[in-house]
Specification:
The protein is α/β, with parallel strands linked by helices. It is 37% helix and 23% strand.
Amino acid sequence: MTSSPSIDRLECATYKIPTDAPEGDGTFEWDSTTMVLVQIWAGSHRGIGYTYADAAAAGLVATLKDAVIGSECFDIPSIHKRLASKVRNSERSGIAACAISAIDVALWDLKARCLDLPLFMLLGAARKSIPVYGSGGFTTYSDKRLRDQLSAWIGEDGCHAVKMKIGADAKRDPGRIAVARDAIGEAELFIDANGAFTPQSAVRFASVIKAAGVRWFEEPVSSDDEAGLNFVRHRTPASMEIAAGEYIYTLDDARHLIEAKAIDVLQADVTRCGGISGFLKISALCEAFHIDLSGHCAPSVHLHVACGAAWLRHLEWFHDHVRIEQMLFEGAPAISGGMIKPDPSQRGNGLEFKFQDAEKFKI
């Protein structure tokens, strides 16, 4: 029987990476993205995890070291239990969940590397490749940039669907959606309002754009408004699915959305929902309720666990995160024919951080 090495070291660093152009959605605009990177060692083996979150998450990771160091690295559930106890008075959601997610991803990477296995083989695979959809189309983009980005995902990368941001200017959005539809032809078009609408205005907007054949309407209202999501879901065309869940931090958050019949497709984000461990639990919940699951952003860190999610539909190929991950990680997946797949010759999650390249972004 393989012994479980003890964890003897944990380090955390934060990087702030500028966007390649101003980005915005229905409720927010930004010009940089912050990544919190966690490394965990057990002897000569090292695991890497990360989250996209405020730099405050790094400070919280530092306070959680004592719950990790000295643990047997194969005992991830027991480590999780201690982490949850440590953040009890800080609330498990938000920054705490992001910090725990980064630690958990590093733990699973470490375990797979100790066992000399690719992570997807350790977790068990339902598939060996994952469909992705192109995601960007920011509200700050010109019509030309919107057209060029979406058409490239369909033509060059072979995606069967793309997603654009809406909600900053509802009067302008129908025209932008028409530009997107013209750019992608018969491919599926998704829109994401990031909670910009009220339930009533979301239904009215869905009626206005009905002819565009929008397949997926993400967060028409805030994910916190389960009744509002339910209202929209039952008043939009049957062909237009309602999706939400990127701000799931716990299994209860996922259960509440499902039980409220608020969504057609549940989203979950490994960098927020408790890491690999949390995503696996949410995947099992989706299977039990016969509802599809979609991975939100950060495709490099979702790839291996997505291979094992029975009801997974696809992953989000989010422009900002794809650019960062391909810039700062060796082993970041490349898209081909609208699919990404793990490299079975690499151990763990297959990622190696380019510390020298990232140094200029460190904060």
